[in-house]
Amino acid sequence: MAVCVALMAVIASVSGLNVAQSQVAVELGASQSTVLWIINAYTVTLAALLLPLGAAGDRWGRKPMLLTGLAVFAVANVVAVAAPSVEVLLLARVLSGVGAAVIMPITLAVITSTFPEEERAKGIGVWTAVGGGGGILGMFLSAALVDLGSWRLLFVLPLALVAIAFVVARRAVPDSRERPEHGFDAVGSLASAVGIVGLVTALHEGPVHGWLAPLTVAGAGAGVVGIGVFAAWQLRRRGPLLDLRMFRSRALSSGSLSLLGVFGVQAGILVVLFPYFQAVLGWSGLVSTLGFMPMAILMMASAGLAPRLSAGVGLRSTMLGGILMFAGGLASLALMASADGGYLSVLPGMLIMGVGMGLAMTPATEAITGALPRAQQGVASALNDVTRELGTAMGVALLGAVLSAGYRSAIEPRLEGIPADTADAAREGIANAIAAAHGAGAAADSLVRIAQESFVSGWQQAMWAGVAVMVLLFVYVALRGVGPRPARRG
């Protein structure tokens, strides 16, 4: 129970802020691109630190590390509640990411190191269902808090979950640890963090400001250098943070890439769906989140079904079926969504996506954890988590940036005749455009309509980008496969 509640707090913080994008943009004067950075600062930090802190949990003890991470996470959310500016909120999100990077790898390591072999797949299925459904459940509860009060209240929810997890963990979580032969890999930890942050920065800035813009080029350069140094160092070090030779295993490579792609596109879709519900359909945060519930229910149900299905037809067939359904759902969203179509135009695609996500995630997670020995379960869980969170950061950066660039490209030629100050606000994002429309006089209704149609144009581009990622992933898994069902080693 403790690890599931802790995991839900971490996952809820990944997605909970999505429901408050419009409010944060208006209250703090942030552009759509800046709001994406506020959302993604948490995820980037989490992804960058998961591997080293997963190894630290193995080395220094999972229980004390879990309790430390919960405490850091709590302090960060207190700061976020009182944040007076974009800068302070960004700092709080980074600190939250540090705490989450301590917590998250330990949650799966506890399951995989304590569950008996015959029950491990079921435990992973529950963990996957909590991880996948917890994000949308967190958005639902966060939306209720936002609608009843302020966007600041959404940081109260993780605080409550962390308090419960802390009390239960002190009593129930065993203090397991490993005794590695080699010292902690500080060089690999730093290089991996630099590589991840640089790569996400390039993906975030490229579609909006251009792939040759200074920040984009600097981010890409740092990402390439960081990843290159990390790979070279890991291959020569006797006790590597992550033994890259393990990726010769078809199970490990296919499972990791599947989680990277599925979680990335899922996170990107959630970021663009909320503004569609709120700014285009005019829904409140709570109603918008209720709109996600059918997808969440099907995702959790199919995640629970996936272990039995993969036992019958194999991991690869289950993963391929999930990826294919996910791509079909995205295509449906791209083709059917419009400013006038309403909820029923996007519901079929969401339902198909929900089933596909659940079917793809569980066998991918089982492939990763099953490919590594018991003594490396902290690293296994961190690898599983880092692919999820790196995918999330990349998906939010790429699909969010494609949406922002598509929106700006579509709205720019339609702002003639709009007062300069109002037009400048409209270029920043749909929430800013709707807020500025209140002072646009006779042009208010026209500006809102222009912003909504421009948003849908950017939305369609983001959906097709997601389809492209899923097609590439499908081809890779189909050709590479996952080999026989992995057996636990060590």
From TrEMBL:
Keywords: Membrane, Transmembrane, Transmembrane helix. PANTHER family: EXPORT PROTEIN, MAJOR FACILITATOR SUPERFAMILY MULTIDRUG TRANSPORTER MFSC. It is found in: Cell membrane. SUPFAM superfamilies: MFS general substrate transporter. It comes from the Bacteria. One of its GO terms (cellular component) is plasma membrane. One of its GO terms (molecular function) is transmembrane transporter activity. It is a multi-pass membrane protein. Residues 1-483 form the Major facilitator superfamily (MFS) profile domain. InterPro entries: MFS, MFS_dom, MFS_trans_sf. The keyword Phosphoprotein does not apply. The chain crosses the membrane at residues 32-53, 65-84, 90-112, 124-145, 151-172, 184-204, 210-235, 256-277, 283-306, 318-337, 343-369, 390-407, 462-479. The keyword Transmembrane helix applies. This is EmrB/QacA subfamily drug resistance transporter.
